[in-house]
Amino acid sequence: MNFELTEDQKMIRDMVRDFAKKYVEPGILDRDASMEFPHDLVAQLADQGLMGMVYPEEYGGAGVDTISFALAIEELARYDGSLALTVASHTSLCTGHIAQFGSKELKDKYMPDLVSATKLGGWGLTEAGSGSDASGMKTTAVLDGDHWIINGGKLFITQGSVGKTFVILAVTDRSLGNKGISAFVLESDMPGFSVGEKMDKLGMRSSDTRELVFENVKVPKENLVGELNHGFIDTMKVLEGGRIGIGALAVGLARGALEDSITHAKERVQFGKPISKLQAIQFKIAEMATDLEGARLLVHQAAYLKDQGKSFGVEASTAKYHASEVGMKICSDGIQILGGYGYMEEYHVERYYRDMKLCEIGEGTSEVQKMVIAKSMLK
Amino acid sequence: MKFFVCCKQVPDVAMAFQIKDGELQKDDLNYVLNAYDASAVEESLVIKDAVSELDLSLVLMGAEKGKEALRKGLAMGANDAFHIEDDAFEGSDSHAAANVLEAFFKDKEYDAILCGKQSQDMDMGLTGGLLAEKLNIPYVTNAVGLEVNEEAKSILVTRQGDAGQEKVELSFPCIVSCSNDMNEPRIPSLRGIMQSKKKPMNKVSVADLGLATDAVGKSGSKSTLLSMDFPKARKAGEKFEGEASELVSTLIDKLTNEAKVL
Questions:
Q1: B194, A62: Cβ pair inside 8 Å?
Q2: Chain A nearest C-alpha distance from B191 (Å)
Q3: Which residue ranges make up each domain of chain B?
């Protein structure tokens, strides 16, 4: 048992920390207000090697472990949840699905551009009437000669308008239920592929969230990812990895709330002394720090198990569920410590709070995580 | 061309320091590459980017942990590193450090040695000058810009003085101490970090350098650190606001009756 980070992990954490402080923190309020996708920052992240860091060198990645990935996401989320979400979803979902289940031809065709972020990736499971329960999925794929014809649409798709490469789930045999769903790689310039209007959101405002519409999109037969009718089963595996990223994102946001609360508590003088001298504040800080550390350990545990090639699905759900739930409390307590300042956008903690809410919803709600955890407890 | 950068690992000055019984408490400190040395590495890499055959080596004298600072420099882009590590170094002052570096450089070939103008922890700013004296080569301090002239085998140094900037030309081999105003050190890329593991990290001991153990550490030092303490806390000043005439009366009253300087 060893809780020490390796030298590589520390260097990667410090590098992303320096990067985030220097390039991500400036302009964050403007990005949150304008909802503009930060193309320049994403290009810088790509130059830095952070848009596909876990993938093999043959595809342009660095082959680093999942703990390093979680550390990088935490450091980015410390200032900007939206940017961390962009990196996490691009890396784990679209690229992750192709990397785990795609044929060698698909990997060779799509991975280099995804890992270098020359093309951003999006991933489509959710629809207006379907999400974690895929039984209501309306999108269909019908084989027509050498092509699949895809019709339908997806909702709340991250990188919806800035993405160029998408993995989309579609029904290929309705009679088989969840076992009749398959995954396909779509390109945004395929005829019939269109993108809806920008969606105004509570948080994660400078990440790109859109509706996608498919009208007779003709997809080459070889763009089927994984086995036919195995898409939803593969999707569950892809989401297991993704949940480590969302857990790390929650840890980063919560750390932002804690650090900003400590700074404020030391500076804010009330009743003749800094409020950090008041036990009411000290206890809040202690609770926040304890919850944060517990969440981080759960995230790192899930990442460690993944790196060891062991089963990590339940641990990833536990980490995401716990980190996002205590994260909400940490951010709420942070706002309380800052008082009126905490309610103001320029003091940042209210943004962490708004961004954090997504962590309880995206890549499976807290309730879905509890279903996964309970199923393993009660089997 | 061959450049060396002398590096030091220092406590991260952004952290809170603890002093107990006159000694710095080191257990909880994070250590980083001295910021002035990072600027020296960066400037060398800027020259290396323009003159691809520049070979850049790093040298650091210090404890085992010091390899982390060297790896940072390697990740930024240096070719290799020398880590002079020996328990005998404990308690070395700038003079003893310069003894070690002199011994290291005496059989090395180089065009320039760059170093930070001082270390962030002790702020002495002596080692570069002492080393130049011992190696008997030209030395310029507080550089904010470097231009290499390969043909003339010289380097044009822009140095910051009190009243302005000076340009000084030095012939190779030479030593230049660098200001952190010179540049903004690059953040290593992930690729740089992964490549840094494969770059040579050469271990060097006091014995390798042919130095007697009494030439280093406390016995090789010419000064002794007796104790450390924080600056005495000063009473906060008073701020007065209001009309000018009232402010003047208040000020004169305070200066006369409280400060008793009028």
A1: yes
A2: 6
A3: 2-215
